Amino acid sequence: MYKKIKKGKNILIFILFFFNTQLIVAQRYEGKKDSTAYNFCNDEIVNGVLYNFPDKRIVGTPFLTEQEWNKAIIYKGGRTYTNQLCNYDLVSDRIILKTSPIYNYERYISVNKFQIDSVLFDNKLFVYSGIVDTVKPVKTYYEQIYSGQLSLYRVYEKRFIDMYSSTSPFGKFSELRTKLYVLNKQFIPLNSKKEFLSLFNSVQRKEVIYYLKAKKINFNKSSNYELENLMIFCNTLN
Q1: 103, 115, 83: which is closest to 33 by C-alpha?
Q2: Virtual torsion, Cα 65, 71, 76, 81, nearest 10 deg
Q3: Which of 7, 85, 148, 204 could form a disulfide with 200 if both were Cys (CB 3.0 to 4.6 A apart)?
Q4: How far is CA 42 from CA 35, 46, 80, in A?
Q5: H/E element, 140
Q6: What is the pTM of this model?
């Protein structure tokens, strides 16, 4: 009888010790987690859903850049958040934020695009379309090339191709495609130089053509730097 009581007492002591230890560990972990989160990634921008990476066996990448993570600056409600790590999943059309590790555990967050004004990374400024294009129902991100009376934006696209072969048995992601949009009271897609020139009257058009020839700019293959300077020139015409 004494042995049974002693044995039961020992079990009770062990159970109390075990749960007390777990509680202390949990409290320490939670406290450090909160501190780390605030030190490395403000909760105001970690506002979205957890991001799950696509199957790595799919050929290609859904991201804008080959470099998986890019140093970024996030702008929200007049506030600036520097030293963030981001990329842009073009297939799901989501900005992905990498948070700092907590006990070797990293979180990847698909940020809430309705609450982010813009994101600067890879020397590109991506603006939430709802700010500049109130007509388009589906909200996305536009790369802002130039902002003025006449503004220019670029949209990037990729898609998942569900065609399976020996080289891509799990499918593949398409090549990167881009499209230019000009903002002149409304958003207008630009598919060619001809469509761009149609924005101007006959006198202005001649000056734009002269500028393109003088600068040796191929409109359909022009860089962002060339396009920015072109837009600066075009805005002087108005």
Answers
A1: 103
A2: 170
A3: 204
A4: 10, 7, 11
A5: none
A6: 0.76
The tokens for 18 are 């075990």
C-alpha 93/C-alpha 80 separation (Å) is 22
Helix (H) or strand (E) holding 212: helix 202-214
Within the chain, strands assigned E span 48-50, 70-76, 79-89, 94-98, 108-111, 118-121, 124-128, 141-146, 151-157, 160-161, 172-173, 177-183, 187-190
Look at the block and give the residue holding tokens 């799919």. Answer: 58
Amino acid at 172: K
User: 133 burial class (0-12, 13-18, 19+ CB within 10 angstroms)?
Assistant: middle
Could you report the per-residue pLDDT of 196-236, keeping only the tens digit for each? 999 999 999 999 999 999 999 999 899 999 999 999 999 99
